């Protein structure tokens, strides 16, 4: 039987009484979305969630997104479908960069902070990060200090070499077929 622990940033997570190590999935939607668009493939988010956490008790799959000024019905439907299959959605307003274009930087920062905060709480033993962004090099270093296992998934094109180096090749995954329909 699972027991509720606490509600942090609108995420309800659970502790398990099984002998499995606990895992969180931290998914950078923008990082994955642009690669999927380019490849013209779709993801089965339910099966990917199960595959990524295979062998672990999945405490919380969390998806981080930039929130546009207007959220159209198609995107609202997407969010509702994700929540229905157990994903927690964290939206941060998009920032406007120097050139006047929307920027995801606040989203990555929120994801970075959540990964570290939950790890410091002891909420999980394994972090599964789905992003290739360079900002997560520091996260991997912090998680190592806390003795938290880390796997990082991304697309070869957008996987920071510094991140691959920091997490180690045995924990850096790039197989597109693993998570597409």
Topology:
Elements: E1 3-8, E2 11-15, E3 22-28, H1 29-39, H2 45-52, E4 57-67, H3 73-84, E5 88-93, E6 95-96, E7 102-103, H4 105-121, E8 126-130, H5 136-145, E9 149-153, H6 161-167, E10 172-173
Parallel strand pairs: 3-4, 3-8, 4-5, 8-9, 9-10
Antiparallel strand pairs: 1-2, 6-7
Helix pairs in contact: 4-5, 5-6
Oligomer: single chain
Question: How many β-strand stretches?
Answer: 10
Q: What is the terminal separation in angstroms?
A: 33 Å
Strand content: 25-35%
Q: Strand order of the main beta sheet, please?
A: 5-4-3-8-9-10
Order of helices and strands: EEEHHEHEEEHEHEHE
Low-pLDDT runs: 1-9
- How many DSSP H or I helices? 6
Q: What is the makeup of the main sheet?
A: 6 strands, parallel
Number of domains: 1
CATH topology: Rossmann fold
Mean pLDDT: 85
The secondary-structure class comes to: alpha/beta
Shape: globular
What is the H level of CATH, i.e. the homologous superfamily? 5'-nuclease
Radius of gyration: 16 Å
Known CATH architecture: 3-Layer(aba) Sandwich
Structure description:
The protein has 181 residues and is an alpha/beta fold. It has a single domain, classed as 5'-nuclease (Rossmann fold, 3-Layer(aba) Sandwich). Helices cover 36% and strands 28% of the residues. It contains 6 helices and 10 strands. It has helices spanning 29-39, 45-52, 73-84, 105-121, 136-145, 161-167; strands at 3-8, 11-15, 22-28, 57-67, 88-93, 95-96, 102-103, 126-130, 149-153, 172-173. The strands form 3 sheets. The protein has a 6-stranded parallel sheet, with helices on both faces. A two-stranded antiparallel sheet has the order 1-2. It has a two-stranded antiparallel ribbon with strand order 6-7. A hairpin with a 2-residue loop joins strand 1 and strand 2. Helix 4 runs parallel beside helix 5 and helix 5 (136-145) runs parallel beside helix 6. The termini are far apart. 34% of the residues are buried. Residues 1-9 have low confidence and may be disordered.
């Amino acid at each position: 039987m699972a027991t509720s622990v606490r509600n942090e940033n609108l995420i309800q997570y659970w502790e398990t009484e099984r002998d499995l190590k606990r895992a969180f999935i931290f998914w950078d939607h923008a990082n994955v979305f642009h690669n999927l668009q380019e490849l013209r493939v779709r993801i089965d988010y339910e099966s990917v969630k199960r595959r990524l956490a295979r062998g672990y008790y999945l405490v919380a799959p969390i998806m981080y997104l930039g929130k546009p000024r207007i959220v159209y019905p198609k995107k609202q439907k997407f969010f509702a479908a994700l929540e229905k299959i157990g994903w927690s959605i964290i939206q941060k307003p998009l920032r406007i960069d120097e050139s006047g274009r929307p920027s995801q930087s606040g989203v990555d920062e929120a994801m970075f902070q959540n990964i570290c905060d939950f790890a410091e709480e002891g909420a999980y033993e394994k972090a599964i990060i789905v992003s290739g962004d360079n900002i997560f090099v520091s996260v991997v270093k912090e998680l190592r200090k806390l003795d938290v296992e880390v796997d990082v998934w991304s697309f070869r094109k957008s996987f920071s070499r510094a991140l691959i180096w920091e997490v180690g090749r045995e924990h850096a995954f790039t197989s597109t077929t693993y998570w597409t329909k």
